[in-house]
Amino acid sequence: MKKVNLGCGDKYSQDWVNLDFNSENPDVIPHNLLNSLPFANEEVDVIYNSHFLEHFSLEEAKKILTECYRVLKKGRIIRIVVPDLESVCREYLYILNNIDKPENKEKYKWIVIELLDQMVRTQKWGLMNVYWKEVVKKDNKLIIDYVKDRLGVDIRNYYVDPPSPKPSNYLNFTKIKRQLFNGYIRVIKNLFPTDYRKDIVDQTMLGEKHKWMYDKYSLPSLLQTVGFSKIQILNEKTSKITNFKDDYLDINSDGTPYRKSSIYCEAYK
Ligand SMILES: C[S@@+](CC[C@H](N)C(=O)[O-])C[C@H]1O[C@@H](n2cnc3c(N)ncnc32)[C@H](O)[C@@H]1O
């Protein structure tokens, strides 16, 4: 049974074929998923991806899903998890409509970052990192609990240090390739006049930004356009994939959702 996890990051099961961009993890196949999937037509039994599709433009997402359709066997399932545009918009409007309450003035700062920052940031980790650090430093329990409630993330464990080059003990092919690529980008960037440089080549990592967002209407519509059918919105604990919960991809070991405020969508080829 061939089960494929696209854009797995660090959240994967060894029972699956895991693919991600440029991974150094031996359990993950490095592959740029904007290229064709490395599988034959109708070779794959299940496809899963979580918090992956929103990193592509609508056109790119359609291309990726068309590839998924090609490699999936007839009658088999694709499961897609993405951040829920509706959830963040509803929360933003609720906070805005109740902005007179002092706690909502504080929550407003976060919900705007959640809604916009990952789409517009020009620096790695963007404003999210700056704000989370400030919140942790001040031990602002209101926002620590609020982000936990929204995303399921305890920012006291998760907030991110400024990017610093990791000490490198050994060189392998992937590292050399990445260093050559980064050097190439630096050279190209410096060819632009200084005033335009920041806008043309921004500082976010490839695949870090959100380029689109989905809701319970637009994701099923996109899947339908590509040819998928019997499309259902489920939740983190429900799936038509046999024994899916045993892989702990959408839940933590204590049964709580791994990615809160998400849409869980399944469809059949
Ligand atoms: C937000 S992370 C989600 C990781 C994991 N699925 C999870 O839910 O924790 C998005 C992942 O998509 C990967 N990704 C983005 N663009 C990609 C591309 N063009 N090819 C392969 N992987 C890509 C990133 O490297 C990253 O690991």
Structure description:
The chain folds into two domains: 137 residues, 3-Layer(aba) Sandwich (Rossmann fold), CATH 3.40.50; 127 residues, no CATH class. Strands 3-2-1-4-5-7-6 form a seven-stranded mixed β-sheet. It has nine helices and seven strands; from the N terminus they run E-E-E-E-H-E-H-H-H-H-H-H-H-H-E-E. Helix 1 crosses helix 9, helix 2 runs antiparallel to helix 3 and helix 3 crosses helix 5. By secondary structure, it is an alpha/beta fold. It binds S-adenosylmethionine. S-adenosylmethionine (SAM) binds next to loops.
List the helices and strands and how they pair.
Layout: E1 3-6, E2 17-20, E3 28-30, E4 44-50, H1 58-71, E5 72-83, H2 85-97, H3 102-120, H4 126-137, H5 141-151, H6 155-158, H7 173-191, H8 194-200, H9 218-226, E6 229-234, E7 262-268
Parallel strand pairs: 1-2, 1-4, 2-3, 4-5
Antiparallel strand pairs: 5-7, 6-7
Helix pairs in contact: 1-9, 2-3, 3-4, 3-5
The structure holds S-adenosylmethionine.
Residues 7-9, 11, 20-21, 32-34, 50-52, 55, 207, 259 line the site of S-adenosylmethionine.
